[in-house]
Amino acid sequence: MLQKFDVIIVGAGSFGMSTGYQLAKRGVSVLLIDAHDPPHSYGSHHGTTRIVRGAYTMGESYVKLALRSIELWKKLEREAAEVPGTLGHDHATLYDPIGVISIGPRGSRFIQSKTESCIAFGIPYEALNAQQIQERWPGFSVPSHMEGLYEPEGGILYSEQIIASYRALAVHYGAKLLPNTKVLQLVSEAGEPLVVTERGSFTAGSVLVSAGAWSARVLPELHNIIKPYRKPIAWFKAPKERYGRGRLPAFIFNNGGAEEYFGFPALDESGLKIGRHDGGYPALPGQPVPPFGAYEEDEAELRHALNLFLPEAGELLAGQTCLYENAPGEEFIIDELPGRSRVWFAGGGSGHGFKFASGIGEALSVAMLKGKEHYPLDWDAFTLKGVNL
């Protein structure tokens, strides 16, 4: 007889593990399946850190979800501290409010839209000109035509530790985890979703697919919607008196148009971290992702940003690649799939989704059990409406 669960989650990364934790805490029988052993370096959640902030450029639906997510990150940290063995030793915290500075051309939509969201939602912020930024944080070099928006309550999420904490808590509340297991097929059996894996088949009342960049392997209809992209990130040697924790906030640089970089102060001996949000190479299903350094521009593009904005950064210490699961307009998709009864999809994080994972998990756990109308999310902003499957 096939083993049945209330919910099966395919892909136990940021969105999937968060949802699994929320469901298990509500007493639901949950099976989490992942092709690897999370946290791992084959998706979009590795690299130690992610930026979290409230001000956003994509409208009030995202701002509201970001603010709720920040509340839930704080709650997760408290809960993880109370359950023995959940928090590891690398970080005493999961959410670290060291502040976030966004720097871009004066009067640009990049700065203006974030300012508008701060005003509309009462998010604490400071508007700073180039000189003020450099006076406060001498490690920055800011062209005179640029300005900044500083969010003192923004900061860092320790991404891999968060996945590990979600995993430990989900199992603590009764969830089952099947790591290192590939899903071969998702079909319907007698009106119920059937998940076929290399280690057996399972049925469920409903299924969530949150397989990140490789979601189209499970849901082929998403092939032209979710586009995986390879992104290089790197750590550079940096003087701690300029670029160490307490000397520099997390940062986002917009150099005009789509050219955008993000990074973190030197939190330890690993150095100053920086990545580029736009650009990148398509990742090909079934093919290994080329490692950092496979392309000359991997380091060159990041060095270009350092020369512009963080000129005292030194030699390259380490590099990695991660995967973006780009969706049209970088807009998330959180929806029940048309034509697939009781099959949900959460994805399209597009490189900025991790900070929302706590809120997305809470929203999905309620919607999958009771219906969308029972959770106050602007669901229309995250549906497949207008997308041709």
Strand fraction band? 25-35%
Can you give the mean pLDDT? Answer: 95
Query: What sequence of helices (H) and strands (E) makes up the elements?
Result: EHEEHEEHEHEEHEEEEHEHEEEEHEEEH
Task: Specify the structural class.
Answer: alpha+beta
Biggest β-sheet strands, sense, barrel: 9 strands, mixed
The beta-strand count equals 20
> Over all CA atoms, what is the radius of gyration?
21 Å
Low-confidence stretches: none
Note the gap between the termini. Answer: 34 Å
Shape: globular
User: How helix-rich are the residues, as a percent range?
Assistant: 25-40%
Helix count, DSSP H or I runs of 4 or more residues: 9
3D structure, described in words:
This protein has helices spanning 14-25, 60-82, 109-121, 130-136, 159-172, 215-218, 240-243, 297-309, 357-370; strands at residues 3-10, 30-33, 49-52, 95-96, 100-105, 126-129, 146-151, 155-158, 176-178, 183-189, 192-197, 200-209, 227-236, 250-254, 260-264, 272-276, 281-282, 316-326, 333-336, 343-347. With 389 residues, it is an alpha+beta fold. The strands form 3 sheets. Strands 5, 6, 7, 13, 14, 15, 16, 17 and 18 form a 9-stranded mixed beta sheet that branches. Strands 1, 2, 9, 10, 11, 12, 19 and 20 form an 8-stranded mixed beta sheet that branches. Strands 3-8-4 form a 3-stranded antiparallel beta sheet. Helix 1 (14-25) crosses helix 9. The relative contact order is 0.19. The mean pLDDT is 95.
In brief, what are we looking at here?
With 389 residues, the protein is α+β, with helices and mostly antiparallel strands.
